[in-house]
Amino acid sequence: MVLGVLGSGSGSNMQAILDAIDAGSLDARVALVLSDCPGAWILERARQRGIEAGVIDCRGFRTKFPEEAQVETAVRLKDAGVEFVCLAGFLRLVKRPLLDAFPGRILNIHPALLPAFPGLESWKQALDAGVAETGCTVHLVDEGMDTGPILLQERVPVLPGDSPESLHARIQAAEHRLYPAALTYLSARSGNGS
Ligand code: GAR
To answer: Residues 78-126: pLDDT tens digits?
Structure first.
């Protein structure tokens, strides 16, 4: 599987994918990493690994992913030979031009048991709701916010005394298992990415 990764932050999920590749448990290669945030640590992680990394020019929009930027992103991913696109903490909504370029081949990791708690800071939503259990989800991306078909989920308990930070850390530990596992599952399901 040739992967492209889009992220806005630290890139710990991308690191988990790279670690699984190194360990031989995931047969894949990360060809390109792109971020809408020039200072995002995910870009530095990629560069340190010798992976091509670049910034998405979102034309000054703070949260929108403008159509021109999506077309450019699709072209860059295609030029790099990418087969599957992994959203890893990418905080803009992907729409038609990019979805059409990779039909059924864009994945996202979300820090909740979807369909519960879509959107931002889902671990805080879970704490505020007082649930005993939350988790994380890897799903295919469609035009909605965190609504596409679910590939895999892992449950995570909410413990007495949890803070947003402690709960998010426990969810992230699960995410780092789940994303490589979902890619392995998808690779097998799609005949090794071809
Ligand atoms: C992850 O917890 C991911 O689930 C979340 O952002 C974090 C990125 O961490 N994504 C969302 O909330 C998307 N709705 P990372 O940059 O260390 O992988």
So the answer is: 999 999 999 999 999 999 899 999 999 999 999 999 999 999 999 999 9
Count of structural domains, the chain = 1
The label of the residue with tokens 């990019």 reads 98
Cβ-defined contacts of 44-53 (< 8 Å, 24+): 45/11, 45/14, 45/15, 45/18, 46/5, 46/11, 46/14, 49/18, 52/80
* Amino acid making up residue 133: E
Pocket flag, ligand 1, residue 148 (CB < 6 Å): no
Ligand 1 center to residue 108 CA distance, Å? Answer: 9
Residues 3-52 pLDDT 10s: 999 999 999 999 999 999 999 999 999 999 999 999 999 999 999 999 99
Show the domain range for 37.
2-190
Count other Cβ atoms within 10 Å, centred on residue 122. 24
pTM over 0.90, yes/no: yes
CATH, residue 47:
3.40.50.170
Q: Is 7 in the pocket of ligand 1 (CB under 6 A)?
A: yes
Residue 72: exposed, middle, or buried by beta-carbon count in 10 A (0-12, 13-18, 19+)? middle
* C-beta of 13 in contact with ligand 1 (< 6 A): yes
Is 139 an active-site residue? no
CB 84 within 8 A of CB 102: yes
